[in-house]
Amino acid sequence: MAVISLENVKKLYKVGDQEIRALDGVDIQLGEGEFASIIGPSGSGKSTLMHLLGCLDTPTQGRLEVCGHDLSRASSDLLARVRNQEIGFVFQSFNLLPKLNVRENVELPMIYSGIGGAERRRRAEEMIDAVGLTSRANNRPTQLSGGQCQRVAIARALVNRPRVILADEPTGNLDSATGASILEILRGLHREGRTVILVTHDPKIAAVTPRVIEMCDGHVVARP
Amino acid sequence: MNITQSVELSLREMWGHRFRSLLSMSGIVLGVSSLIATFSLTAGIEKGVRQLMTEVGGLEMVTVVNKEISSRMIEFWNLSPGRTVRDAYAIKRSAPLVSHVSPELTHGVAVSADGGDPLRVRATGVWPDYREIANHELAAGRFISDLDVERAQRCVVVGWEIAARLWPGKDPTQAVGHKVFLNNDPFTIVGVLRLYERDEDKRRREIKEQSAAINKKPPRPAPMSRGRGTSRNWNPLQQKNEAVLLPFTTLFYQFKSGQFPDNTPENVPLDNIRFRIADLGYFQQAIDQAARALDVTHRGVDDFGFDTREEWFGSMEAGLRATRLSGALIAGISLVVGAIGITNIMLASITERVREIGIRRAVGARTRDIFVQILIESVLISFIGGLIGILFSLVLIQILIAISPDRNVPELQPFTIVISVGFALLAGLVSGIYPAWKASNLDPIQALRYE
């Protein structure tokens, strides 16, 4: 059964009088536990695709299903719930809250899913331990290195046990050695049975995933 | 996300920007403190005015006055005997809605005691009812009795000031039982009225006493006022302190008899007739009853009218209302300004936190969560501002008391604290709505991209 399914999805933007077809009829099926990368030059529609997969946006036309939820015309509350429960985001620029320490950052998704204080703390500490940052749990993100920040972000992405991990250029701000270690963590998640989607512009990174979805001008051009 | 978490988060956010939060609170602080202070101020003034109103007899006191005869009745003018003591009897007999009535006959006299300098005052001859009509309270002794009137006893009730001047340096209440001379005729003081003073006079007296204690010099006695109309600041209470009250008959026989033929206590023209209405709920009915009684004694000639103090009291009430309203208006304006200030700061704070809002949305915050978050923050700012405002107002009231010793003392009204904090919360709520709406409607994608 497909975790993510797109059928003839179109996303149109209006800029002045001009209509921009960011996605022009995309069909993608991603199964449970797949490790895929979405690749393409800038302007190819891969960011738009990622926003749709991440439930930050809804398609203009076509059918979008994520983890059994039909999101073609979903309310913003349903989108928020799916983001909270089913999707874990890992961003290029980490997107940690600078005012919160590592543990509080990891707790953030659980605050919005209504998990109580003690349980929240326990699970956050468990996740921080899993990414090997227990000693930095009370530090602010500004006191951490880039690789450590990205590991905090991964801990945050995993803390609500989502089925899909969505990583947007996760190695973009890191040196190659650290980047490799982050990719290794993602590969580990795939081995645990999670669906991992990697968005990148770098074919070398895309090469680590068994499946590569190449985007160009709003179309999927290669589907191996 | 529950309320406790939101409150905690908001407090943290406010603590992170302490100075900015304090600045945004300042409007609310000023609004709340000025609201409480003005209410306290007007409460003090109101208390003073109401006290004055009851001490001068209240709305219940009505005076029968002479009036120009209407053209219809002008030819019969000599049928009416004018205001006489028969009018007082008539009202007493046939106006059950009037509880007390008394004629007034006045005469200028020189009062002296133990060979001291005489005081020039107006003595008033009255009935025992006069005490209730004018709300006189005795400090010592008794008031004029029915027997005094019947037998025209040579007794007198004096105001506090009179007793104090006749025996300077002595306790005025000790004057009871002593002899005084009115135009060289001996009278016995049977009662002394209590000292009437307005709040401002009281404070002035206290200050004077304090400075006298320091300077060790006896205070110079102030000149006797000449009563209503002549002094710059007419003080109705001063008349009570300078009262010299005799039995009605005594005053007539001592000072008025034999002034013209056929002059008896029954037909001497009176200076005044005053009465007290039993129940203000039947004010007009009581006046009507008195008018019918007087129609008989005046043989149908409409040469009398009634002077009620409705107008005077009404204007005092209106003045109080205006004071209260203008105070509330000023406080209201500063609360509105405070609310606008909070809106402004919240909008700035949101612009600073666009990315944070985007991240929160991405990990699952609903629009509602963001909305509530911002709203709670602005309500908390105004609430804390309100609390600071209360403390500030307490200081402000103390300052007001200190810098205005001859005003009515401001009185803290506990209910205004509740009201003003309520208004502060409302201001916070209203001022937070727009920023909260704006923050919660940010597009998460745009917010995440925001640098």
What do these coordinates show?
The complex is a heterodimer of chains A (224) and B (451). In chain A, helix 4 (117-130) packs across helix 5. Chain A is of the alpha/beta class. In chain A, the strands form two sheets. Chain A has a six-stranded mixed beta sheet with strand order 6-7-8-3-9-10, sandwiched between helices. In chain A, strands 2-1-4-5 form a four-stranded antiparallel beta sheet, with helices on one face. Chain A starts with a strand and ends with a strand. Chain A has a single domain, classed as 3-Layer(aba) Sandwich (Rossmann fold), CATH 3.40.50. Chain A has helices at residues 46-53, 76-86, 102-112, 117-130, 146-158, 176-191, 203-206, and strands spanning 2-15, 18-31, 35-39, 61-66, 69-70, 87-90, 164-168, 195-200, 211-216, 219-222. Helix content of chain A is 34%, strand content 29%. The longest helix of chain B is centred in the last third of the chain and has 43 residues, at 310-352. Chain B contains 15 helices and ten strands. The two termini of chain B are 26 Å apart. Chain B folds into two domains: 3-53 and 315-449, no CATH class; 60-308, no CATH class. Chain B has 451 residues and is of the alpha+beta class. The chains are: A alpha/beta (224), B alpha+beta (451). Chain A binds chain B through residues 51, 54, 56-57, 76-77, 80-81, 83-85, 89, 91, 95-97, 99, 108-109, 111-114, 156, 160, and chain B through 1-2, 5, 12-13, 16, 355-356, 358-369, 444-445, 448.
Largest sheet of chain B: 6 strands, mixed, barrel
Radius of gyration of chain A: 17 Å
Largest sheet of chain A: 6 strands, mixed
Q: What structural class do you assign from the helix and strand content of chain A? A: alpha/beta
Q: Which consecutive residue ranges of chain A, at least 5 long each, have pLDDT under 50?
A: none
Count of the domains of chain A: 1
Give me the side-by-side strand order of the main sheet of chain A.
Answer: 6-7-8-3-9-10
Named at the architecture level, the CATH assignment of chain A is 3-Layer(aba) Sandwich
How does the overall form of chain B come out from the CA principal axes? Answer: elongated
- By DSSP (H or I, 4+ residues per run), the number of helices of chain A equals 7
What spatial form of chain A do the alpha-carbon principal axes imply? globular
> How many distinct helices of chain B?
15
The total beta strand count of chain B reads 10
**Which structural class should the secondary elements of chain B be placed in?**
alpha+beta
User: Which two chains form the greatest contact, residue counts included?
Assistant: A-B, 25 and 23 residues
Element-level helix/strand string of chain A: EEEHEEHEHHHEHEHEE
The radius of gyration computed from the alpha-carbon positions of chain B, rounded to a whole number of angstroms, is 33 Å
Helix content of chain A: 25-40%
CATH class of chain A: Alpha Beta
